[in-house]
C-alpha cells in the first residue's frame, strides 16, 4: 500500500472530536479571565484579578501545598513499593504472581467511592481517622496500580540475558538492578509516575472521605467552592492546574519519549 | 587461566533429567566444544558453569577451586550470549568497562584495559557508539571484548555465531580462534554446528540426550566415532544394517560389503555400517575384482562443484553418493545400472544398538 495522507473527511472529523473533547478546558480557561463575579462565556472584559485572588488566598495556597505534598509523597512511595512488587512478580520470586497482580491492580476496577468508604471505616476502626498519614496511605493505594502496570510492561520488554550478562560480569543482584534493569525500565516508570501523580492530584471521591479539616486538597477545595457558589477564581485555579499539567507532560515527553509506554 | 573440571554434573527439572552425570576435564588453555542437537543439555552445562543454573548434582571446579555453589558474580568467568545481551543504554566503552568497574578498576588503567580489549576485536574508535548503531558482527565483537576485558579464568560461548550470516560467520570463526589462541584462555563453546565445532576446537564433546557420546579430538570424532549417534550426527553418512559374515558385512540380497572393522567381529553379529557420501566411487562397469556393489541410479542432482546421486542397492537400501562434478562418474544418467566401490578402510562399523 502506498502511503497516503488522510483524506479531508477524516481530518475534519478528527479535528472536531479533538475540539469537542477540549471544550470544557477551553471554557474554563476563558471564564477565568472574565471581569464579572460569576462564571460566564464569552468572558466579559479581560482581567487577571482572579489569578491574583487565588495566589494571595491562604486557603488556596494551603490546598495546593497539601495536594503537591500528597501527590509527590504518594507517587514516590508507590514507585518504591510498586517497582519492588512488580520485579518480584515478574521474576516469579513469590508464589501466586497472577493473584498478586490482580490484587495490586484492584483499585483501578473498584469504584473510588467504595474505596473511600472502605478506608474510612478501616481507619475509624484503628483510630487513625483524620490524620494526614491516612490520606497518604489512601493515595498510595490508588496510585500503585499505575506504577505496577507500567513496570510490568517495561520489564517484559527487556532481554533477560542482559541481566545475566551483568551478573556474570561481577555485579551482584542489587548492582545489576541499579545499573541495568532500572535504567532500562525508566521511561516506562516515568510514564507510570506521571499517571500516578495526576491521579493523586485530581482525586476527590477517596480524599473527600478521609481528609481532615487541615488537610483539604485542591480538588476538594474546588469541589466545595463550587457548591457554595461559583466565582471565576475557581476557573483561575483550574486554569493554573491545566497549564502546570501541560508543562509537566511536555517536559516528560521531551526527556524520556515516554509516549511509547502509555 | 585454569583447567576446568566437571564431575558427575546433573540437572533435573522435576522428573526430567536434562543433564545426566556428565564428567569432563578441560585442560588449561584448551578450546572445547559441546556439540549436539538442540535439547541435548549442552547449554544447560554452560549455564551451570556460569552460575546461572544450579546443578542438581555434581561439582564444578576451575583451577582447583570449587565454584559449584558460588553466585555468578563471584566466578570470574566470561560469557558470550547468543543474543549478545549488550547493555543497550550504555556506550560500547561502558559495556566493555562494566566488568572491569566491578573489579574496582578506574581512571587511566580502566581506559587502557578497555582500549586494549577493543583493539583485540578490532573495534578501536568505536567506544562512543551505542550497540544499536552497530552491525550484528560488530555487536558480536563488542560482546567478546566485554567478556575478555576482565581477564576471566574461563571463557564460555553460547552459540555466539548462530545469528550471523554465513560469510560473516566464517570470518568470525577465524577471528575467534585467533583470539582464543593469543589469549590462551580455557574455552567452552556450545554449538549445534558440527563444522564450527570441528574447525575451532582442540577437542569436541558430542552430546545427546544429556549424556556425553564421545569426547575426543575433531579427527577422532570424524574418523572413529565411538557410537552410532556420533557416526550418524557427524557428516550425515549413509547407514546400512547387516550382519558379519566371513570378515565382511552381509547386507542381504546377495550384497557383501568389505569392511576393515568386520574381521574382529564374530560371524552373525548384527552391525551398522556408516559410509560417508564422498567415500563412494561410482563406475559404469564392474571393476573386475568383483568387489563393487551393483545398484541403480534413482536420482541425480547437480549442485555446482558436486553431483549427488541417490542409488538403490538391492531392495532395502538407498545410498546418497557425492562425486566431484569434474571427476569420474559425474555424468551417469538416471535409471542406469552402476557399481559402487567403497574402500574397506572408509567404512565405519559399529555393533547394532551402541547409542542412538
Throw out a few tags for this protein.
heterodimer, A: 262 residues, MetI-like fold, 11 helices, B: 356 residues, alpha+beta, Rossmann fold, OB fold (Dihydrolipoamide Acetyltransferase, E2P), 5-stranded antiparallel β-sheet
Question: What average pLDDT do the residues of chain A reach?
Answer: 88
Sheet with the most strands, sense and barrel status of chain A: none
CATH-defined topology of chain A: MetI-like fold
Number of helix segments of chain A? 11
State the separation between the terminal residues of chain A, measured CA to CA.
28 Å
Membrane topology (chain A): Multi-pass membrane protein
Pfam family, one (chain A): BPD_transp_1
Transmembrane segments (chain A): 12-33, 68-90, 102-124, 130-148, 188-212, 232-252
Keywords (chain A): Cell inner membrane, Cell membrane, Membrane, Transmembrane, Transmembrane helix, Transport
Describe this protein's structure.
- The complex is a heterodimer of chains A (262) and B (356).
- The two termini of chain A are 28 Å apart.
- Chain A has a single domain (59-261), classed as MetI-like (MetI-like fold).
- The mean pLDDT of chain A is 88.
- By secondary structure, chain A is mostly helical.
- Chain A is built from 11 helices and no strands.
- The longest helix of chain A is centred in the first third of the chain and has 33 residues, at 58-90.
- Chain A is globular.
- Chain B is an alpha+beta fold.
- Chain B folds into 2 domains: 2-230, P-loop containing nucleotide triphosphate hydrolases (Rossmann fold, 3-Layer(aba) Sandwich); 239-351, Nucleic acid-binding proteins (OB fold (Dihydrolipoamide Acetyltransferase, E2P), Beta Barrel).
- Helices cover 24% and strands 35% of the residues of chain B.
- In chain B, the strands form 4 sheets. Chain B has a 6-stranded mixed beta sheet with strand order 6-7-8-3-9-10, with helices on both faces. In chain B, strands 13-12-11-14-20 form a 5-stranded antiparallel beta sheet.
- In chain B, helix 2 crosses helix 3 and helix 2 runs parallel beside helix 4.
- The longest helix of chain B has 18 residues, at 166-183.
- Chain B is elongated and about 80 Å long.
- The two termini of chain B are 36 Å apart.
- The model of chain B has no long low-confidence stretch (mean pLDDT 89).
- Chains A and B meet through helix 7 and helix 8 of A and strand 6 and helix 2 of B.
